[in-house]
Specification:
The protein is mostly beta strands. The protein contains four helices and eleven strands. The strands form two sheets. Strands 1, 4, 5, 8, 9 and 10 form a six-stranded mixed beta sheet that branches. A hairpin with a 4-residue loop joins strand 6 and strand 7. It is globular and about 40 Å long. It starts with 19 loop residues before the first strand and ends in a 16-residue tail after the last helix. Bound molecules: ligand MTE and molybdenum atom. The site of molybdenum atom has 5 residues, from loops.
Amino acid sequence: MKPSTEERPIKSGRIPPGQFLSKRFPVLQYGHIPPFDPETWTFRVWGEVENPLTLTWQEFSQLPRTTLTLDLHCVTKWSKLDTVWEGVSLKTLRELGLVVPTADAHYVIQHAEYGFTANLPIEVVFADNFLLATHYDGKPLTPEHGAPLRGLVGSIPGRDDLKDVYLWKGAKWLRGLEFVAQDRPGFWERAGYHNDADIWLEERTA
Ligand SMILES: Nc1nc2c(c(=O)[nH]1)N[C@H]1C(S)=C(S)[C@@H](COP(=O)(O)O)O[C@H]1N2
Ligand SMILES: [Mo]
């Protein structure tokens, strides 16, 4: 269930409860960094969408791009402010008619290399603070931060209308999005992290 506006946590300041500021950009993941071959890489969208989609790396690279400045909040308690990202917004893909969810689509599962998944409500991935990111700080993503493509969530200061979730809800090495009617916990959610992951409510573990 989506929380009503009344239930939305009050955001005071930019540092959520329990977080501290980091200047570094730590690397966190389960398992190894996958290789990337631009000749065979594909990005797929399937499930509860009007038109399933498969794009090559060359096709993905030609999509219209968005630059976005986000505050990142990791469940392990570091936060990094004013990080600059570039990539493709799902909102843009919907406007172009490339990704059109069916009426039954309520959740989106990010599928990454090695079977890693992360789940989010559909309104979160179509919001202004979710990006299919290819660049960080003006440069292509490094392998450890998810090259060539990662799902990315963060908060935009002042945008109290948006839901803010911890960084684990963005899958590095992203290969596709599955739109589904029923929610399905992802990798870290099955490992004990909170399904909703709201940073202002400190929804860290279930
Ligand atoms: N594919 C994949 N993506 C992942 C993870 C993972 O284990 N595998 N871990 C998540 C977690 S727990 C965090 S905190 C962020 C860390 O992103 P960073 O390494 O770029 O800081 O990636 C998220 N995305
Ligand atoms: Mo994490």
